[in-house]
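[READ THE FOLD]
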Amino acid sequence: MKYFLFLFSILLSYTTCARKIEGYVVLKNSDTLKCEIVQNFAVISGIDVASFQYGIRVVFDDGHKQNFMPGDIKAFGIYIKNDVLHFVSVRVLSSNLFKGEEEKQVFMRIIQRGHIKVYYFIDLISSPNGPVRTPVYAVQLGYNEAALWLEMKKNEFGKNDFKSFFKEFIPEYYSFFESLSDRARLEEVLDKIRKFNRAMIK
């Protein structure tokens, strides 16, 4: 009896940890379907972006449940209060010390649309005390192109070399980013991208 009660309490805690969030998925044929997106072991408040990066579980209006990996759909979104968090299936290039350049496909939250698209991702970065969850950013020109980590270009001192990055990433518009200082911070670069996207609309 005690074992049954213990098992029941575990199952109950599991179901209460799972959270269904109203949202939608965008299929490969561009059809958009309303659904609920499940976040297991949700934080008490807010959204854990990292829990959606490698795959999602959805519940459709008819009760049908389905798992989607980044290669299965184009995008999905979740509604949070008066906001919509939109995630796109993105191919991103990473520099691997042992394998060279490698490509992986993940869901990333898009935070900047326009000529240069900016995505938000939570990565596990090595540290002396073990892996640390760290926000990182990727940039992309066309949706069919691979994205690049914004912080991937380093100078000889190991610091982010943003001017050199943009010279290679978007050479025809490099002059727009040439005014960045040699010690530009990430926030400055993201602001510069926003201004560039606005300038491209005019």
